[in-house]
Amino acid sequence: MGARESAGLAAALRVAFAVAAILLAAACGGDGVLLDTGTGTPEGPTLSSLQTSIFTPRCAIDGCHAGSEPQQGMDLSAGKAYAHLVRVASTELPAFQRVTPKASADSYVVMKLSGDPRIAGERMPFGGPYLTLAEIDAIRQWIDAGAPND
């Protein structure tokens, strides 16, 4: 293969990878990772999208983080999650807040979901299946954006 053909192939591969990356990002709309706000610009996850896609189906179930006696006193039901998460000290390690706005690396919820070695007790959700990396990243993005209550 000549230098010209090699350069042409390299350019074609760069274009193909760029198109694939754009298509992948555009496909993430339904899982709370990226949202289209109608402006054509992707926006980070919101509490509402996380509630719908993660907290309600995976966490806010009776016997876990919902019901009359939620585990660790943390109710992740719709309408209650924010008050039980943001700027609230963890009951297991009170030196950490469950969610510290703009600091996902030091937010205890992210530590519990990712199995960080600093946690006390078990990784969540208890016994698995664990959240995907994309789901954990969506929570991180929301926290790093200031954990707004939308």
Report on the architecture of this protein:
- The protein is mainly α and 150 residues long.
- Helix content is 41%, strand content 3%.
- It has 5 helices and 2 strands, in the order αββαααα.
- The protein has helices at residues 3-26, 47-59, 81-85, 108-114, 133-144, and strands at 35-36, 42-43.
- It has a two-stranded antiparallel sheet.
- The longest helix has 24 residues, at 3-26.
Tell me, briefly, the overall form: globular
Average pLDDT number: 81
Question: Helical percent range?
Answer: 40-55%
Q: Please list the strands of the largest sheet in the order they lie side by side.
A: 1-2
Number of strands: 2
Our Rg estimate from Cα atoms comes to 19 Å
Q: Summarize the helix and strand pattern as letters.
A: HEEHHHH
SS-derived structural category: mainly alpha
Query: The biggest beta sheet, please?
Result: 2 strands, antiparallel
> How big a fraction of the residues is strand?
under 5%
Cα distance, first to last residue? 56 Å
Low-confidence stretches: 6-42
Number of helical elements: 5
